[in-house]
Amino acid sequence: MSEQWIYLDGQYVTKENAKVSVFDHGFLYGDGIFEGIRIYDGNIFKCAEHLGRLYDSAKSIGLVIPLAQDEIREAMAETIRRNDMRNGYIRLVVSRGVGNLGLDPRRCANPTILIIVEQLAIYPEEAYINGLRAVSVSQRRNLPDALNPKIKSLNYLNNILVKMQSNFADADEAIMMNAQGYVTEGSGDNIFIVKNNVIYTPPCYLGALEGITRLAIIELCETLGYKLKEEPFTMHDVYIADEVFFTGTAAEVIAAREIDGRVIGSGQAGPITLKLLEEFRKIVSLDGYKVWEA
Ligand code: PMP
Known about the structure:
By secondary structure, the protein is of the alpha+beta class. Helix content is 28%, strand content 28%. Strands 7, 8, 9, 10, 11, 12, 13, 14 and 15 form a 9-stranded mixed beta sheet that branches. The model has no long low-confidence stretch (mean pLDDT 97).
């Protein structure tokens, strides 16, 4: 990529000129929301679903996005075109905007909107076959009645502290439980387990983001005729599972081979995980909004 162009409040600016105020409440308080989106072969995967979640997150925190969904979609498409991008990652951020040092969001007149597109540093291809090492962490997922994890907010300190715990354990991913000890999700991915050919994923009310990839996998399970249940489970169920995998925009569908020192299944990505990954990769360039014809 020669010059990197960034959308910032209606302008397209270079990386060097993409600056936001120190009084922006996104910076001061993590007051804002975001989306991480993929573009595959010129297709913004699940574009409408990501925009839907962005506007839902905004509504939930009482932030009025001053653009319509199709205007944001067009700004994403134009940022992609200006960066001549066919495959990559889109970061769409809407913060409360510039205010004063007080918390009161009423002081913030205009939300800040920015779009960054970049190449993606994802797991190496061998990790999709061999799986990840994961650990459960003591840090609990944010309580839904304190900061609901369904809001994809800019306040990611809960996830960062969890990621630090998995780093200390030299693991690739963390598993977060809620205050009752039920498994919720990874540090930045949803989680699924497979036992006796039934696939389980925690219901999001336990405290998990309603992942777009999670939903795509639930739909694929239906298409493929796999039995899927959204029901609570504990780390015990994870340890004895035949397969465990994470889903997310960046990670796609990736197995865990070892969790808290227990080998999962065969110690490699299992057949259901690999089948779901294969089918998922078939739809990513088809389902969404086409910026370029492939
Ligand atoms: N959970 C968390 C906490 C996340 O940040 C993400 C996104 N990185 C996910 C789950 C997966 O969501 P999606 O499939 O929409 O990327």
